[in-house]
Amino acid sequence: MSTSHKTHCLILPYPVQGHINPMLQFSKRLQSKRVEIIIATTKYLLKNMKELPTSVSIEAISDGYDDGGRDQAGSFVAYVTRFKEVGSDTLSQLIQKLANSGCPVNCIVYDPYLNWAVEVATKFGLVSAAFFTQNCAVDNIYYHVHKGVIKFPPTQNDKEIIIPGFSCPIEASDVPSFVFRPEAERIIEMMVNQFSNLDKVDWVLINSFYELEKEVIDWMSKIYPIKTIGPTIPSMYLDKRLHDDKEYGLSIFKPMTNECLNWLNHQPISSVVYVSFGSLAKLEAKQMEELAWGLKNSNNNFLWVVRSTEESKLTKTFIEELTIEKGLVVSWCPQLQVLEHESTGCFLTHCGWNSTLEAISLGVPMVTMPQWTDQTTNAKLVKDVWEIGVRAKQDEKGIVRREAIEECIKLVMEEERGKLIREHAKKWKELARNVVDEGGSSDKNIEEFVSKLVTIS
């Protein structure tokens, strides 16, 4: 190992973009503190990336489905079962290969979805760190399900659920939802299994920051060696200490950057509703239609990301009519640049944690339309705890109607309460920048992590 690097970390993300990006950004922070980094991800994912980061080394392991990934497996259960078997094996081979080439690994930082990585670390005598890509509040809920304190899914009788470490009771509609999904039980099992061997790891890293979740972090810290290291977004949007860190550098989709930014440059300040449901969410055709009408009726300019796989849910003529005066529909966009743009006034979001953290870091108020998993809990925090947005509620058929969407957009963009929401958003933006800057809570935690690694290696 070269003497300029003090220690060597192998990073193992779950192979979807929303899980890789935070770990990738954490890796860049570690690199800036002279830790050598290798990211191990699946052959299938590497084959299908439109953009790959040049700043870190990437090695391939196998999930057992090199030609089709998760889809080739047929079912989620088949996928994770085979990934454990083939992944453990190919990860071990990679660690051996690195050791033989004079570049031995000291530590594995792994996504707890892949909790078998702990066994691999133990086999090679390496230290391990679990890296939770969701926030601490959501981790806390899964932990209490793991312990049997909370029943999952909650029944209709559970009007309010009291969770230790939470400042307020939460309703059944605020807990992570897997109901009505095929294989829901096995997905819940995987979420809960993140905690099955957490007592064997040396660190628990959380993609959040202390000031954002003080109470729940203090509570969880009594059980696990927790360190918050977020927000994990490119440094140029926060503390600007890593000058070449402007983008994640990794993308499954090709962003229509020029179209988006040219269009935004011609819109008035704070006039645009930016709409995106991330890289995975699939809306029903009926929901797409209601959303389209809600945007049109709100009478605001809008930039709407509709992935090419979702396009067929809206007719071409409908999109043309919809966008004639007020809007732009694109297949993918450079989200950070859009959120940072002065024309953007609010973010209509599914409330995935990466999108939520980006909005917090860039001070953009939110209208939330959570779909499943942690998004419902994030939406609760956005509205009631951090007070930086509102939630457009579903009706009894599970559809958010156009009237609810229009009302929420107008509230944030035009009404008096919207001003207060924007003030809160500014406050959190300031805090998000400070925590990763020198001496901030997340920066100190990363420093401490690095110095312990150095001692070990």
From TrEMBL:
EC number: 2.4.1.-
Single GO term (MF): quercetin 7-O-glucosyltransferase activity
Keyword vocabulary terms for this entry: Glycosyltransferase, Transferase
Residue stretches spanning the membrane: none
Superkingdom of the organism of origin: Eukaryota
GO terms under cellular component: cytoplasm
Record-stated family: Belongs to the UDP-glycosyltransferase family.
Name of the protein in question: Glycosyltransferase
Source species taxonomy: Eukaryota, Viridiplantae, Streptophyta, Embryophyta, Tracheophyta
Gene name of this polypeptide: LOC102598754
